[in-house]
Specification:
By secondary structure, the chain is mainly alpha-helical. The protein has helices at 3-12, 20-40, 44-56, 75-88, 102-116, 121-146, 152-167, 172-185, 191-196, 205-220, 262-275, 304-308, 312-321, 331-334, 337-343, 352-356, 392-403, 411-419, 426-429, 431-435; strands spanning 63-64, 72-73, 284-289, 346-350, 365-369, 374-376. Strand 5 (365-369) and strand 6 (374-376) form a beta hairpin.
Length: 437
């Protein structure tokens, strides 16, 4: 299949056609992303981008920043900053097969474009749908064609361009140019470098979303692309368009850290609850998992990003405090001597059986050794996985926790209600952020 197939899908697909699970998953991912972005503004990463955007792009007032100040900037700037914030805590949605975060790169671009175009909620959701589906497929195609594991920004730009192009009513030729330019200009994101040397660059999500948005606006001015990976993919990624929906196959994350560490965090919390051991008595912790996860080796993180891309640190926090939340990314929490000592005792070990099951499954087993007894968990998958989805109540509680104190906790039900009203203006969806200004 080709770019033409992707363009046809992007121009016509709708969440209002087909089975209800597609729309349900779509709305859940939008709410999750809005909450993650709001909380992400509390980290220096988003604050730096916000300052940059308001300094450099404040002349236009197309779209709202999700920081609760009511600030409006250009379409491109809002996309860049909101998308960066959405991934800042590493608590945004993800997709196993493409090993990335589709919603964080697509939803902010679609939201900014929808607000700028005075679109409806239904039009916004349609744009998110086509962006999510084409973004994931671009990632699958790029990974298969190039055989290099790159982060979300490298393929998410295609999804962002599709979403923006849909909302701006691109004709087929213009949309094809937007998709091609987005892919060609998307950031190179060598993800394993970011895992081993964490920085604010992370998955390149903000810049991927920005590149997709800019590509759509350039295409409107006659800027042409060079085709897309869909024309040369070694896997038939567009054959299932309109039949298989990747948005129903993703996961939601309960903890603010890399997905690869989440099964170990969950297993540690299970052991702590079951065994009731004294964390100070722990002599050694062994985490058996897949090979990629063992690269998350930072034991004494010196930044929020290093904490998110650590395995020993969140496991140590879970064992010591019975939680791992955004508060545990703060400097005061990272400096806790008891947690640091425990993190030094965490060993990461490759289990061949678990390694063989990755990336289809993200699994871990945790063993805790104390002088009195050794405790061993079952093989654990992270809560929020396809096989163990978060309940509606759990999703709501996560959103309330992330939105507060920027947005009133009651906003969660208001947002859910608005997302179910396709004829409402998308500005109604942004009311909680405007009211909090």
């Amino acid at each position: 299949m080709t770019t033409d197939d992707a363009v046809a899908f992007a121009r016509t697909a709708s969440h209002r056609r087909g089975e209800e699970p597609v729309a349900t998953h779509l709305r859940a991912r939008v709410l999750d992303t809005l909450a993650a972005a709001t909380a992400g503004y509390r980290l220096p990463t988003a604050d730096i981008l916000r300052t940059y955007a308001t300094d450099r792009f404040a002349d236009a007032v197309d779209a709202t920043l999700l920081d609760g100040t009511g600030t409006r900037v250009s379409l491109e700037a809002a996309t860049l900053v909101n998308a960066t914030a959405a991934n800042a805590l590493d608590i945004d949605d993800g997709h196993r097969e493409v090993k990335g975060h589709p919603a964080a790169v697509v939803v902010p671009a679609a939201l900014a474009a929808a607000e700028a175009a005075d679109a409806t909620v239904g039009e916004f959701l349609d744009a998110v749908l086509v962006g999510y589906e084409l973004g994931v497929r671009a990632g699958l195609a790029i990974h298969a064609t190039d055989a290099v594991y790159t982060g979300t920004g490298s393929w998410g730009a295609v999804g962002a361009a599709a979403a923006v192009g849909r909302l701006r009513n691109h004709d087929p030729e213009t949309l094809a140019a937007a998709l091609g330019t987005a892919e060609y200009h998307a950031p190179r994101t060598p993800i394993m470098r970011g895992v081993e040397k964490p920085g604010m660059t992370k998955d390149g999500i903000g810049w991927g979303s920005y590149a997709g948005t800019a590509a759509a606006l350039l295409a409107e001015r006659g800027f042409t692309g060079s085709g897309t990976v869909f024309d040369e993919a070694t896997v038939a990624v567009t054959d299932s368009l309109g039949e298989q929906f990747h948005v129903t196959e993703g996961y939601l994350k309960p903890y603010p850290c890399c997905r690869w560490a989440q099964p170990g965090v969950a297993a540690s919390l299970d052991l702590r609850e079951r065994a009731r051991f004294d964390p100070e008595a722990i002599e050694r912790v062994e985490v058996e998992t897949f090979a990629e996860a063992t690269h998350l080796g930072t034991r004494a993180p010196d930044s929020p990003e290093a904490s998110e891309y650590s395995y020993p640190y969140p496991v140590a926090v879970a064992l010591a405090r019975g939680r791992f939340t955004p508060a545990d990314l703060e400097a005061s929490a990272r400096g806790d001597d008891a947690v640091r000592r425990l993190a030094e005792r965490v060993d990461l070990v490759v289990d061949e059986g678990l390694d063989d099951r990755f990336p289809a499954e993200c699994l871990a087993r945790v063993t805790v050794e104390t002088p009195a007894e050794t405790y061993r968990s079952d093989v654990r998958r992270p809560p929020g996985a396809r096989e163990q989805p978060l309940t509606r109540a759990e999703r709501g509680e996560k959103a309330r926790r992330l939105l507060a104190p920027t947005v009133d906790a009651a906003a969660v039900e208001t947002l859910r209600e608005t997302l179910r009203k396709p004829d409402q203006p998308v500005r109604a969806l942004l009311t909680p952020w405007s009211d909090s200004a």
